[in-house]
Design goal:
The chain has about 80 residues and is mainly beta. It has one domain. The chain is about 0% helix and about 35% strand. It contains no helices and seven strands. The chain is globular, with a radius of gyration of 12 Å. It starts with a strand and ends with a strand.
Length: about 80
Amino acid sequence: MKITEETDYPSAKPSRSDRDAEAGGLPFHLRIPRWCDNASIKISGRVSFLQPRPGRILTVAGPITPDRKWKDGDTVTLQLP
């Protein structure tokens, strides 16, 4: 599995991670800081239905829906305003 992370955390810029297809259907876990009330997630450029909650770990099971597997070039973008 290959993950590439681009981040300027804790600046206002979004954090971006890339995954290779070898990751298959493995979940991706993101820690949402307790202070962040309005975090948002985009998966491969599309707004996710996932609702990040402050102080919790968010599990992203697949790129858009839990039954879809990761593909080369898929991205996860976490915005922490």
